[in-house]
Amino acid sequence: MAEQISPTRSALLASKASLKTASGGADLLKRKRDALIGEFFALVKDALAAREQLSGVSKGAYTSLFSAKAWDSPEAVESLSLAGSGDYQIDMQIDNLYGVKVPRISVPERAAQANFSPINVGARTIQAATDFGGVLEAIVKVAATETKLRRIGEEIKKTSRRVNALEQVVIPGIQDDIRFIRSVLDQREREAGFTQKKIKAKIEAKAEAAREAQNAQSHGSAAD
């Protein structure tokens, strides 16, 4: 990169400004990455809790399902599952977390009982339907936390790549440019100083020769 830069003082000033900008950008990105890492680890606890909740309610729901099939017959349970509503509405909004778009999902409160008539339906089947409503709620919570976790993790990786690019490629390249420009300018100053000394020496030598010639001429006139 240094070979493509004109080694002038204006280029040196521009390179110094670029170095300041790149260093400041790296610092900002590192602060953003550190903040995202803090959010990531805080969210890991929520994600683990959501997974644990899903595991717990799933075990209870399947236990209720097996009991319902045993007591109310598989046909009755399957018939009820086909009659149930398939709609499940959630409220989802998008939050901006340090420039990262993450979903914020609000799980609606579900009814304590299943949304069908209990007539001709066994109590164990009703319980199984209610328990699986809890499973659906837990799945939504897991999806919300893990989606947010995944997006934050992706942004951490992206930010780390940018920091590495600045610190390992861009900033060293600018520093090389600055060293190159300074070395050329210093060399030019040394050459200019050497040239000035030579010119000064020549001028002084000519002046000295002129003085000697004048003195010699003055002595010759006095002798006459």
From TrEMBL:
Keywords: ATP synthesis, Hydrogen ion transport, Ion transport, Transport. Signal peptide: none annotated. InterPro entries: V_ATPase_D. The keyword Metal-binding does not apply. GO terms for molecular function: ATP binding; proton-transporting ATP synthase activity, rotational mechanism; proton-transporting ATPase activity, rotational mechanism. GO terms for biological process: proton motive force-driven plasma membrane ATP synthesis. The keyword DNA-binding does not apply. Pfam families: ATP-synt_D. Belongs to the V-ATPase D subunit family. Produces ATP from ADP in the presence of a proton gradient across the membrane. This is V-type ATP synthase subunit D. The lineage of its organism: Bacteria, Thermotogati, Deinococcota, Deinococci, Deinococcales.
